[in-house]
Amino acid sequence: MAATRSEATDPYCLREQESHALLQGHPWRRFVVLGDSVAEGLCEPVDGYPDVQLADRIAAELRARAPELAYRNLGLRGLRAYQVRASQLGPALEFKPDLALVVCGGNDAFRPSFDAAAVDAEIARMIEALQQAGATVITVGMFDVSHSPAVPEARRAGLGLRLRRLAEHTRAVANRLGTVHVHLTDHPLTADPSIYSSDGRHGSARSDAIAAAETLRRLAHHLDATSADRSVLR
To answer: What is the pLDDT of residues 167-184, one digit of tens each?
Structure first.
């Protein structure tokens, strides 16, 4: 009988030793999250994986190294990018974050009328405002949910094209503006049905565990690169 998979044995998730080593001495004390259902956290439970969503996982790891960390999640399901910016950017700035996660655009890409340039503009406005306020910004290109078995075959190809276009555009905006970008769309498991929920729109607890691991690794890389740059300038 094959062994049951769990987060503790999943090669794509954080090992306990790795978790302890990452982000030691990180500078962040105020973490805010903006976005849609991915930010809010609608992952479907999976045996062997704690039922903890992406943003809460990141906050817990940050708080393990800085217990005084303040955390606010403004994410709300169903919102398009312009609605995220209109309803969440103001409260996010009022929170005075030094670290922000922005994840949205999926609800736009689910529409055949998806306007990638319009979504780019909304995401860029949020990134720039948060950066000007002094925050390090994390952006994400999410897993390609068109591979979910719950997506009807007739919709799969068109949805996949739009989701990949969203991911590539978000990566381009991230590169231009200098965010900590986590690109999951081409992850080795993107076509694995175990990372998707039964609703054909969201991920599972496994996908959130993997996404959190990749995000924390990217944050650690960002800190290492920033430290190296400072050493060169001395």
So the answer is: 999 999 999 999 999 999
Query: What's the rounded Cα separation, in Å, for the pair 86 and 76?
Result: 12
| Secondary element (H or E) of residue 85 | helix 81-94
How far apart (Å, rounded) are the C-alpha atoms in residues 136 and 180? 8
* 59: Cβ contacts below 8 Å, ≥ 6 apart: 31, 69, 71, 73
Beta strands in the chain (DSSP E): 30-35, 70-73, 99-103, 136-141, 180-183
The token pair that represents 160 in the structure block: 């996949």
- State the Cα–Cα distance between residues 27 and 222, nearest whole angstrom: 12
Owner of token pair 């949805």? 159
DSSP 171-211: HHHHHHHT-EEEE-TT-TTTT-GGGB-TTSSSBBHHHHHHH
The sign of the torsion formed by the CA atoms of 221, 226, 227, 231 equals positive
Edge to edge, what strands does the sheet with 99-103 contain? 70-73, 30-35, 99-103, 136-141, 180-183
- For residue 117, what are the contacts with CB-CB under 8 A and spacing of at least 6? none
Query: Does 231 have pLDDT greater than 60?
Result: no
pTM: 0.93
Q: How far apart are CA 218 and CA 198, in angstroms?
A: 29
Structure tokens at 128: 């720039």
